[in-house]
Amino acid sequence: MANLIHDPLTQFIAQAVVIIACSRLVGLLARRMNQPMVIAEVVAGILLGPSLLGFVMPELMNGLFPSSSMGLLGTLSQAGLLVFMFLVGLELDPKLLRGRGRASVLISHTSIIVPFVLGSLLAFELYPTLAPEGVAFSSFAMFMGVSMSITAFPVLARILTERRLLRTRVGAVTITCAAVDDVTAWCLLAFVVSLVRATGLSDAVQTTVFACAFIAVMFVVVQPLLRRIAARVDSSEGLTQNLVALVFVLLLISSWTTEIIGIHALFGAFMLGAMLPKTGGLGHALAERVEDFAVVFLLPLFFAYSGLRTEIGLLDSSDAWMTCGSIILVACIGKFGGSAIPARLTGLAWRESVAVGILMNTRGLMELIVLNIGLDIGVISPKLFTMMVIMALVTTFMTTPILNRVYPAERIASDLLETETPLGKPAELPGLKVLMCISRASSGRSMPVLAAALSDPSARSRESFFAVKLMDSIERTSTYLKGEPDDAEQPMQTLVDTGRELGLDVHPMSFVSTHPAQDICEIASVKAVDLLLLGWHKPLITSATLGGTVDEVLRRANANVGVFVDRGLKQVRRVLVPYFGSPHDRAAVALASRLVARAGVDVIILHVVRPAGTERIGPSAQEKLGFVFEEIGQQRNRVLVKLVEAKDTADAAVQESANGYDLVVVGLGSEWGLEQRLFGLMPERLVSRCPVSMLLVRAHGDPTALRPHNAPVVTDTSTHDVGT
Questions:
Q1: Of 700, 676, 610, nearest in space to 648 by CA
Q2: Which of the chain's ends, N or C, has fewer CB atoms near its CB within 10 Å?
Q3: Does position 542 have pLDDT exceeding 80, yes or no?
């Protein structure tokens, strides 16, 4: 080890490589367990410290993290925290603190007061054995109260968004309360730090006066300056390096000022971020430039530094573990009870109230920052620090699994859709109901064309058209509190605008999803849609049409599904329906029948028969086509049934599709080379070679459910044309 690490630079490089790699590896496991990344980073830091690496391989830990290197590692971790706290303040939108009503006011206050009081009472039990020598009880008790009151605002925002709760009533109340808690807890912490550092009453008063003066200067001087910077960014000049440098200078000056005052540098960084305008592009542009470096590189250094100070071996007795358990219990009772009970008293249902309590009990990184401050200023001992770190881990880890039990995905989907579409419950709408799932702007232009062709112009008021755009879960925290992610705006707006031009009233919704297929199926179930339209584009790795999310939706959806392969659909006037007689083919014919009745399109039913020796035109073909004759009996003047002989059904359909069609509607099945294959690794020739847009139909239940009701009677009753 000494040959590889021979100076401070190589020492730090080796430490950074190990820390980042370990954090990301543990992060893979955390993601599989639906846990936030902060859990992985805290655990990785503890694994690299004396709790595991130092216990199993002490020589390796001492060689990699010698005591002489802790100064540099600690300084860099503190620098990372300055940037992170600036980002936390940047995400704290003052709009969240207004207009939420008495529920948020009551919950936010009680969720601070109750755990603060319980933490202060617990201090009576902990002070004799776990408080450092020379620390006043008042400072110790207040710090315990503050540490119990913390809610991890950034982690909570990520959980709410990934769970699709941010736009529900539960999410709105929770994020508002967490924002108030964050501000209040940091103000209380600043006061506690000033008390601990003060040598007397006069010093404490002086620190308080200077702190108030600092906050006043931030509002009166710094905030107008930041508005001017934001105005320049919103102009054609954009965010230049000079403006970035100016913001960082202000960040360092603000942090330096609060450190000199005696309320810790992190408070200054947080205040500058909170002062920065939330409208315009300055905040987002700054976050884009600095967040990845801060979160991926600097923050793991802080977690490793914290892990090296966390010695689980200090809990060497049953009494110590019982004390740790009592800390966890008090923390959960205080935060959960202080949030759930007032939530119920303000009118929320019990399920919603419990969900609020579970979410507000999330502590995460913010708790770890507070604990490190307490250890640095000497208000808590290393043993109590370890207990509190375990408490932070447990309360954060338990949030997601318990929330999944109390507030399942089906309930979230129902609440979300009631919020997104306030015009009434879907079950009360008797007309056609279509859910359109899009991923690209081109689908946003073409999918409404298909939906309009399926709808009844005389019954648009009774029909329902919903559109959803799901985005992959992303790790960048700065994007989570935006109303709608950027990559959702263009496809969704295109779809809504096109639908409006075609006379469709489309209800849009878009949100981040960690399980897109599950969410799509839940939305379709809650809305009780007649047809679920999936936009499709060629995957990057495989050429399969029916792989990935599409495959999962086809298997799980309790609705008729149409996979829309768009090749520039602009109108629906001539439609080809390859037909072999499967239930999915029958659903395709039912859709074609609706197209004829509603849009007056011309439909060609293509039935492929085998050459001599297999199937000929006869009873078998007549039997298979019986459904077609029954389905289109009143629309014969617009339908041609065409029989062809071919060895390969898919090739015959491809050849026919080149004869001037706008759309090919085909049922899923092996007859057309569209069977669902393991991993979706084999290409479907019909899809890859068909020159026009396609709708691949999978029937659910009765394949005739998509046929038009009360279709107009066609007076022309001429016989079907049959071609060979």
A1: 610
A2: C
A3: no
pLDDT of residue 662: 92
Listed by start position, the domains of the chain span 8-407, 408-529, 564-724
Quote the DSSP letter at residue 669: S
Pick from 580, 588, 574: nearest CA to 644: 580
* pLDDT surpasses 60 at 348: yes
Q: Taking the CA of residue 157 as centre, how many other CA atoms within 13 Å lie in the half-sphere pointing to its CB?
A: 23
In terms of pLDDT, which residue wins out, 53 or 669?
53
Is CATH 1.20.1530.20 what the domain over 8-407 is classified as, yes or no? yes
Among 478, 270, 291, CA closest to 369? 270
DSSP 636: G
Written in H, E and C, the secondary structure of 54-117 is HHHCHHHHHHHCCHHHHHHHHHHHHHHHHHHHHHHHHHCCHHHHCCCHHHHHHHHHHHHHHHHH
For residue 229, what are its two tokens? 């910077």
Of 531, 535, 506, 544, the closest CA to residue 440 belongs to: 535
| Both structure tokens of 230 | 């934001």
**How high does pLDDT run on average in the chain?**
78
Q: Span 86-97, mean pLDDT?
A: 71
CB–CB of 451/529 below 8 Å? no
Torsion angles phi and psi, residue 575, rounded to 5: -125, 140
Distance in angstroms (rounded) separating the CA atoms of residues 26 and 283: 30
Does 408-529 match 8-407 at the fold level? no
Asked whether the predicted pLDDT for residue 21 surpasses 60, the reply is yes
Residues ≥6 apart with Cβ < 8 Å to 9: none
pTM for this predicted structure = 0.66
Contact 464, 426 (CB under 8 A): yes
> Long-range CB contacts (< 8 A, 24+ apart) of 207-213?
207/261, 207/262, 207/263, 210/261, 210/262, 211/258, 211/261, 211/263
According to DSSP, the β-strands at 464-472 and 433-437 are parallel
- Predicted pLDDT of residue 537: 57
Cβ-proximal residues to 418 (8 Å cutoff; 6+ apart), any chain: 425
Q: What angle do CA 333, 338, 340 make, to 5 degrees?
A: 95
| Interatomic CA distance for residues 663 and 599, integer angstroms | 13
Distance of CA 153 to the CA centre of its chain: 15
715 pLDDT above the threshold of 50: no
Condensed to tens digits (0 to 9), the pLDDT of residues 480-505 reads 445 444 444 577 888 888 888 888 88
For residue 606, which of 438, 442, 723 has the smallest C-alpha distance?
Answer: 723
Three-state DSSP state, 398: coil
Q: Which two tokens stand for residue 539?
A: 């995957």
Residue 207 is which amino acid? T
119-123, 155-159, 452-456 — which is least confidently predicted? 155-159
Q: Which residues 6+ apart lie within 8 Å of 239 measured at CB?
A: 233, 281, 282, 285, 286, 289
Residue 421: which pLDDT band, with cuts at 50, 70 and 90? very low
pLDDT confidence tier of residue 416, bands split at 50, 70 and 90: low
612/615 Cα distance (integer angstroms): 7
The CATH homologous superfamily for domain 564-724 is HUPs (3.40.50.620)
Q: How many residues does the chain have?
A: 724
Query: 30-39, 154-163, 185-194, 553-562 — which one is most confidently predicted on average?
Result: 553-562
Q: Which of helix, strand or coil describes residue 612?
A: coil
φ, ψ for residue 522, nearest 5 deg: -70, -40
According to CATH, the topology of domain 408-529 is Rossmann fold (3.40.50)
Distance between CA 450 and CA 572 in Å, rounded? 7
Question: Taking a C-beta distance cutoff of 8 angstroms, is the pair 572, 595 a contact?
Answer: yes
Query: How many percent of the chain have pLDDT more than 70?
Result: 77
